[in-house]
Amino acid sequence: MPAYKKVLLKLSGEALMGDDSYGINPATIDAMVTDIAEVVQSRVQLAIVIGGGNIFRGVAGGAAGMDRATADYMGMLATMMNSLALQDALRQKGVEARVQSALRMDQVVEPYIRPKAIRHMEEGKVVIFAAGTGNPFFTTDTAAALRGAEMGVEVVLKATKVDGIYTSDPKKDPTATRYDTITFDEAIIKNLQVMDATAFALCRDRKLPIKVFSILKAGALKRVVMGEAEGTLVHV
């Protein structure tokens, strides 16, 4: 039996690149949707928020010198491209998915409508939230925390390239150890930067736990949802 019945998965755009320098790596997204399909088959309600760094940062060189609000809107459009790619890949695996966007693009995707999103999830469809919060100056981490709170999920799953939260950077410090669990307050005191500050504060205030794990480990997503020892749990 799954440990969680309703979850929000936060994917970084960079996670879709695989070993490429930008864009969407077909083998990487195929492996991801295979894991996602397994979770959906376990009758877990799933929503996804995805970043856009693989498209926008890769093409625009980090938008150096650009107006911040303009750059953020471009980043939102990049998340739209990733969301459509993810929806298509899921459908090829037999998983029904709906994209809802915080920016209106009605000819392509649904606008974000909370009751409709909740109904989609209850019907077993994956809901992919595109365009972040629809506002500049807010990251897709914040969008994940916000949508997770609105959907009433039990946990936010933060998928990264590292298999949890460590005492220090494991690439630089061979003595670094991984936390199995850590409180929000401990993470703040130790400056572990699990998510950006706004997203982290929202999760803490809503008592919404965060599970950090590696999306690159085959089957890790299902193990997390089943409550097995995988990644790091951040809790109140």
Task: Compose a concise summary of this entry.
The protein contains eight helices and nine strands. It has helices at residues 26-41, 56-60, 68-92, 114-122, 140-151, 184-189, 197-205, 220-225; strands at 6-11, 45-50, 97-101, 110-111, 126-130, 155-160, 181-183, 210-214, 232-235.
Protein architecture, described:
Helices cover 37% and strands 18% of the residues. It is an alpha/beta fold. It has one domain: Carbamate kinase, CATH 3.40.1160.10. The protein has a nine-stranded mixed sheet with strand order 4-3-5-2-1-6-8-9-7, sandwiched between helices. Strand 1, helix 1 (26-41) and strand 2 (45-50) form a beta-alpha-beta unit. Helix 5 packs parallel to helix 7. The longest helix has 25 residues, at 68-92. The relative contact order is 0.17.
Which helices and strands occur, and which strands form pairs?
Elements: E1 6-11, H1 26-41, E2 45-50, H2 56-60, H3 68-92, E3 97-101, E4 110-111, H4 114-122, E5 126-130, H5 140-151, E6 155-160, E7 181-183, H6 184-189, H7 197-205, E8 210-214, H8 220-225, E9 232-235
Parallel strand pairs: 1-2, 1-6, 2-5, 3-4, 3-5, 6-8, 7-9
Antiparallel strand pairs: 8-9
Helix pairs in contact: 5-7
